[in-house]
Write a structure and sequence with these properties.
Elements: H1 2-35, H2 44-84, H3 90-128, H4 131-137, H5 142-180, H6 185-194, H7 198-224, H8 230-262
Helix pairs in contact: 1-5, 1-7, 2-3, 2-5, 3-5, 3-6, 3-7, 3-8, 5-7, 7-8
């Protein structure tokens, strides 16, 4: 028991050191992937292919998620607003929440869960087949050839998915708030624009863009550094999704806090 207690600080230090090493490697891969962005000719074809793949695997799930989210927010906000006698303000609550918080987070989690897991599996399979080492032997940097197009593809699709979430969630909220709860369409859309500014939409798209980079960088890092064998790839996929979720929510908090300090909300 004494030996176990004596070794506990050492284990904590080793785990902390390992976490710092992994964080440093993640940033190295991310920055190295961005460093050769200017050489578009070497990764343009892979970028188009990855954009199409990520959009194909996430477009239907994003619709199935966004519409119920908008409907749920509309029902909850509508019940509270009806009790307060302010049903016309439901549209403001629904659209403001969809644009400022729900849309970028939903698109990022879908990119991570659907597209990011596929990216991790692909990079992990290349790793255990020694394809990454073979590319290095041939003088090809695997980060420039594989990671760079996936970073830009995930960020681009994340921005597009964010727009789809906003439109779908607003449509779902409109149906339940206007059709089911009897609020007039004019009051719904007038309230929707009362709390929003153009900068809110810009920051939302910026957050989705950043979250796409985070999801792709974590997925590529986890796949390129996974343990050998199918079990290692499966653990890397699970790790990538969990780490991406933590980083996305942390980045969302920081960006939202800075934005609210720099740009006061409209009342």
């Amino acid at each position: 028991m004494a030996v176990s207690l004596h070794n506990a600080p050492d284990r904590v230090l080793r785990r902390a050191g390992k976490a710092l090493d992994e964080t440093g490697l993640l940033f190295v891969i991310f920055l190295e992937g961005l460093r050769r962005t200017w050489d578009v000719r070497t990764w343009w074809g892979e970028f188009i292919e990855q954009c199409w793949f990520i959009a194909r695997v996430t477009s239907m799930p994003v619709l199935l998620i966004a519409i119920p989210l908008g409907a749920t927010i509309s029902l909850q906000a509508g019940d509270i607003a009806r009790q307060l006698g302010a049903q016309s303000g439901t549209g403001a609550l629904v659209v403001a929440n969809m644009i400022t918080q729900v849309a970028p987070l939903a698109s990022a989690l879908l990119i991570s869960g659907a597209g990011g897991s596929a990216i991790t599996s692909d990079m992990g399979a290349r790793n255990i087949r020694d394809e990454l080492a073979a590319m290095e032997v041939m003088g090809i940097n695997p980060v420039h050839r594989l990671v760079t197009p996936r970073l830009w593809a995930a960020s681009t699709v994340a921005v597009l998915l964010c727009s789809v979430v906003i439109l779908s969630g607003t449509a779902g909220g409109f149906y339940f708030n206007v059709i089911q709860q009897g609020v007039s369409p004019g009051a719904y859309f007038d309230g929707a624009t009362s709390l929003l500014q153009f900068s809110d939409l810009v920051v939302t798209l910026f957050k989705a863009w950043i979250f796409g980079f985070i999801a792709a960088a974590v997925a590529c890092y986890a796949g390129m550094n996974c343990d050998l064998g199918p079990v290692g790839v499966g653990r890397a996929v699970n790790k990538a999704v969990v780490v991406t979720s933590i980083l996305v929510f942390s980045a969302n908090y920081v960006i939202t806090m800075l934005y609210q300090v720099l740009v006061p909300p409209r009342f």
